Backbone:
């Protein structure tokens, strides 16, 4: 049994966390650090995908003697052919206006650009921010 009383069902009796003297801060900090870690991990994986896609496009560009950029939709069809059609049907059945202008536009962007932006976003979301206290110099 957990000594904190967090899993005993005390919350259903109308008691607040402060009334139970439950040390919530370590639990909250652990959850925040785990979410931060997973966000950074996903971001780093997206950045790695962006780098691999950029190297592939760069190699194709050198071989063709002009700029070659492979869209995200082409890579999606190469690696997961059935899931693109399933995603299209699912999105069009739920939100029909979203597929044609928005998702098709994203699928026409270069893979390295989409993966790079997603990677940067996830890494930024996973960074630890310093606490700022008002009035403290």
Residues:
């Amino acid at each position: 049994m957990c000594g904190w009383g967090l899993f005993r069902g005390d919350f259903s009796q109308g008691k607040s966390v402060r009334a139970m003297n439950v040390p919530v801060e370590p639990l909250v900090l652990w959850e925040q650090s785990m979410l931060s870690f997973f966000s950074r991990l996903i971001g780093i994986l997206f950045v790695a995908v962006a780098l691999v896609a950029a190297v592939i496009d760069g190699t194709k560009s050198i071989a063709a003697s002009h700029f070659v950029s492979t869209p995200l939709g082409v890579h999606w069809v190469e690696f997961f052919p059935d899931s693109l059609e399933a995603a299209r049907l699912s999105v069009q059945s739920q939100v029909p206006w979203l597929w044609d202008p928005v998702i098709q536009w994203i699928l026409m962007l270069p893979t390295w650009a989409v993966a790079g932006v997603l990677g940067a976003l996830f890494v930024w979301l996973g960074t630890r921010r310093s606490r700022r206290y008002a009035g403290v110099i």
The helical segments are 17-20, 24-64, 72-79, 81-94, 96-107, 111-126. The chain is about 70% helix and 0% strand. The radius of gyration is 23 Å.
